[in-house]
Design goal:
mainly alpha
Length: 281
């Protein structure tokens, strides 16, 4: 038996406290993984541009619909609940990682190709991954009810509230992370442009808008904020810092997704093991 394989002693699966905290662990890691995906999905166009970002999201939804319709049940049957949950999370990481990969090379054709491939892989993962938490939830609540001596309805209500609270909280936190980075790192603010003050001398109108009447562009990265702080930002530096910041943001989400996938490997196998067949001799 080993924790990475999910195999634990029968006594562990009869302990309601261990069953509960195992479920909490699953909910946290799954929520972090999915939250990273939804965060970069919402930032697809700001990070990759209109064309690549739109193709990435479009291919993800198409692949998701086809996988959920045609392949989800066979995959779940072959892998089982726990393995489908873990493998789906790891495959999800490929989608998140496609963002920094697309941003590293400054080539529109390469970016578009990576965006489409990433969207296809992400949609494939989502197509069967979302069945796994529900199945794992059902098996866990059943074991908890038996171990705790409560009804299935009581166990289901308790675990549902825990999962919903963790899932929504972590998803909001991860989305706010990107929003906070965007708000804290303006690349076109007066402090970041030559002249340092307001008005036409630094390329902005006195009311803070750009000369063409549009709002100043906002970066998604840490690099522009650091550059602005030490006074090294200028016209060419704005664009470079913004690109670097986008890579940093996408990489942070990739790390979170990967780390949460590794964390999912520690959850218990809740399937009842099949009894070995007795020999004839």
């Amino acid at each position: 038996m080993g924790i990475l394989s999910g195999e634990v002693s029968p006594a562990t699966l009869r302990n309601p406290d261990r069953i509960f905290w195992n479920f909490v662990r699953m909910a946290v890691f799954f929520s972090l993984n999915h939250g990273s995906v939804t965060a970069v999905l919402g930032l697809a166009v700001p990070l990759l541009g209109n064309e690549a970002g739109s193709y990435s999201s479009g291919t993800l939804y198409i692949a998701y619909a086809l996988t959920a319709l045609l392949l989800s049940a066979p995959i779940m049957s072959i892998l089982g609940t726990r393995k489908a949950l873990i493998i789906g999370a790891f495959v999800y990481c490929v989608y998140v990682a496609s963002f920094p990969c697309a941003l590293i090379v400054n080539d529109d054709n390469f970016k578009l190709m990576v965006a489409i491939v990433g969207g296809l892989i992400g949609g494939f993962a989502a197509g069967f991954l979302w069945n796994a938490p529900g199945a794992y939830f059902a098996k866990t609540t059943k074991r908890y009810a038996l171990a705790k001596g409560v009804s299935q309805e009581v166990a289901t209500a308790k675990f549902a509230s825990v999962f919903a609270g963790l899932f929504l909280t972590l998803e909001v936190v991860l989305k706010l992370l990107a929003s906070a980075i965007k708000l804290l790192n303006p690349t076109d603010s007066p402090a970041n442009t030559p002249g340092g003050g307001g008005g036409a001398g630094n390329g902005t109108a006195p009311n803070g808008t750009a000369p063409n009447g549009t709002a100043p562009n906002m970066s998604m990265g840490f690099a522009s904020f650091a550059a602005a702080g030490n006074g090294t930002m200028n016209g060419g530096g704005n664009e470079a810092a913004s690109a670097t910041g986008n890579i940093v943001v996408a990489t942070v989400y990739s790390i979170i997704a990967l780390a949460s996938s590794v964390g999912l490997m520690t959850i218990y196998e809740m399937e009842r093991p099949k009894a070995p067949k007795s020999g004839s001799g």
